[in-house]
Structure formats: structure tokens, C-alpha cells
Amino acid sequence: MVDEDIYQRITTLVDEEKVLRENETPEDVTRLAHLEETLDQCWDLLRQRRALREFGRDPDDANIRDVDTVERYEQ
């Protein structure tokens, strides 16, 4: 996977999130929570890839971390 693929995935998720939030229904709450978690995972993967690249390592060594790990990060 390359950074552009991850950015495209983020764009798709953000577009879906915007549509759901415009006319949010109770049924959308679960999907929105999943979208937010997936977005966090995508951004984390990009940060990992950038860090690896910055230190001369292969960005393809980055891995998608589980939701529990990503959600526990402090901003």
C-alpha cells in the first residue's frame, strides 16, 4: 500500500462521514463510530509510514494497528 492509497481511503471515509452527519439517524451512530475508528487507524498508518521513511527505513514495514491501540493515543 502506498500513501496515495491511504489518502484515497481517508477521502472516501470522510465523504461518507459527511453524508451521514448531514441527515444523521439513530441507525447511523454505529456506522459513524466505525468510520471514526477506521479514520484514526488510517492516519496512524500514515504517521508510521512517514516516521519510517524519515529514519531511512522501509515505510512498507508499517502495520495497521488495532482500534484499541489507536484509540488510546493522547492527542
Topology:
Layout: H1 3-22, H2 28-54, H3 67-71
Helix pairs in contact: 1-2
Question: What would you say this structure looks like, in words?
Answer:
- There is one protein chain.
- The chain has 75 residues and is mostly helical.
- The protein has one domain.
- Helices cover 69% and strands 0% of the residues.
- It has helices at 3-22, 28-54, 67-71.
- The model has no long low-confidence stretch (mean pLDDT 93).
Structural class: mainly alpha
What shape does the CA trace take?
elongated
Radius of gyration: 14 Å
The low-confidence runs, each spanning 5 or more residues with pLDDT under 50, are none
Summarize this structure briefly:
By secondary structure, the chain is mainly α.
Task: Label this structure with key terms.
mainly alpha, 69% helix, 75 residues, 3 helices
